[in-house]
Amino acid sequence: MNEFPLLTRDPIAQPAAPTRIVHIGLGAFHRSHQAWYTAHASDAKQWGIAAFTGRRPDAAEQLSAQGCVYTLVTRAATGDSYEVIDSIVSAHDGADTARLSELLAADTTAIVTLTITENAYHLGADSHLAVNSEPVRADLAALAAGEAPATALGRLVYGLAARRASGAGPLAVVSCDNLADNGTLAGNAVTELAAAWDAELARWVRENVRFVGTSIDRITPRATDGDVAGLAATREYLDPAAVVAEPFASWVLCGEFPAGRPRWEDAGAVFVDEIEPFENRKLWLLNGAHSLLAYLGQLRGATTVAEALDDAVCRDAMEAFWDAAERHLTTPGLDIPGYRAALRVRFGNPRIAHFLKQIAMDGSTKLLMRAVPVLQAERTAGRSGEEAALVIAAWIAYCASGAELQDRATDAIAAALARDEADRVPALLSTISPALGEDAEVVRLVRDLVSSLA
Ligand code: CS2
Asked: Cβ(358) to ligand 1 under 6 A?
């Protein structure tokens, strides 16, 4: 493979656009989604992206070494197609807060996009910043000492202080994470973190920063070494920063862009006045089913989404969960039957190996967005909610199976699992939401379902 040259930017064919977007969370999804939409806007030449990593510098180093261009491998059931994406013009270690602040302080910067994961908003069950959580406290201590904070959110707040100081004016912050009402939640988290540091900054944020809500969608499993080798053999260049994604992509946005934005609509993005029905459709039907398949599927021996879908038990549970969710997706124009039909095809794409283990991460946060709202809506309507409760029960059974967990609540989950039989289920439910663990009927329902899975 090493006999092939590294992919690099051709400065004539792919001149770097001026930086007007700052992205935090340079992962595969940013590259297959927002960067792709930006590259396909008709005014793409005006909109370059400076992308910062989240935790580690690796992705920035890799991308910088190849002039920030990379291949998007679009993997359809019938074959692959390739496109070199050039909308990212610089890539930086997230810890480079000096560069981040410099870019946010520039009046040419109009937008900050975020893909920092659900957990990184550090929200409590009340959808407000968990001010007493360890990472937030550490950020506040750093800010008070005049040092740069370590969380993505803290770094954004630090950069916004630089923008306020420079007088560069308003801008838009666009959350592209799978959280219900992500614009509002990002606004809560950023404003509350700013307020805990500097009340004047918080006031400036309220007046100048517009938080745009989005529903984002494109299945982008982690690319493997085999993908990179296959790409090299076909294209005769080496591209370790390549991403593999399904053909489907969707982006629904709602909010203001006070300093302008690319014409993402040219690439198919949709701007709406009310985003909630679209978010719920995506979070419940796609992500909810993903989580169900991740836990139930792995308990039953499957390793990928497509494999889980081959199992009638998983498939029936997914359809039943969809039936329950659909009863609460009644806004005209959502075309739920069409959306479900498309999902069956997307999930069944035999050429995409979307590993259930990857989806299973961070269940305690994800289920709050994906399964709990359906459970509650069903119960409010006078039904048991068992189809949605099964998603939660499958997560509990998965946790109890000894599977290696990656979750911000790993310690609390381990402590819950160590409790007596009678307390175990409520304690586990409480790691998702305290109210859930206190609801005797939900506890009974979930406990019965967990037993039925054993
Ligand atoms: C998945 C999502 O890993 C997960 O939790 O459900 O990453 C999903 O693939 C994307 O939201 C699809 O747009």
From this structure: yes
CA atoms within 13 A on the CB side of 239: 28
Which residue has 């009046």 as its token pair? 107
Q: Report helix, strand or coil for 157.
A: helix
Q: Per DSSP, what are the bridge partners of residue 6?
A: 238
Nearest-CA residue for ligand 1 atom 4 is 359
Verify whether ligand 1 is closer than 6 Å to residue 178 (CB atom): yes
Q: What is the CA radius of gyration of the chain?
A: 22
143 alpha carbon – ligand 1 mean position (Å): 33
Report whether residue 75 contacts ligand 1, using a CB cutoff of 6 Å.
Answer: no
- List the one residue out of 397, 289, 275, 268 whose CA is nearest residue 343: 289
The answer on pLDDT for 1 being more than 80 is no
Tell me, what's the pLDDT at 3? 87
The confidence score (pLDDT) of residue 309 equals: 97
Backbone angles phi, psi at 14, to 5 degrees: -130, 60
Global pTM reads: 0.96
Q: CA-to-CA distance for 293 and 84, rounded, in angstroms?
A: 33
- Give yes or no for a contact between 201 and 190, defined as CB atoms under 8 angstroms apart: no
CA atoms within 13 A on the CB side of 453: 29
Indicate if ligand 1 lies below 6 Å from the C-beta of 359: yes
pLDDT at 454: 86
Beta-sheet strands, E only, within 134-260: 171-175, 209-217, 243-245, 250-254
DSSP string, 81-121: EEEEE--EEEEE-TT-HHHHHHHHHSTT--EEEE---GGGG
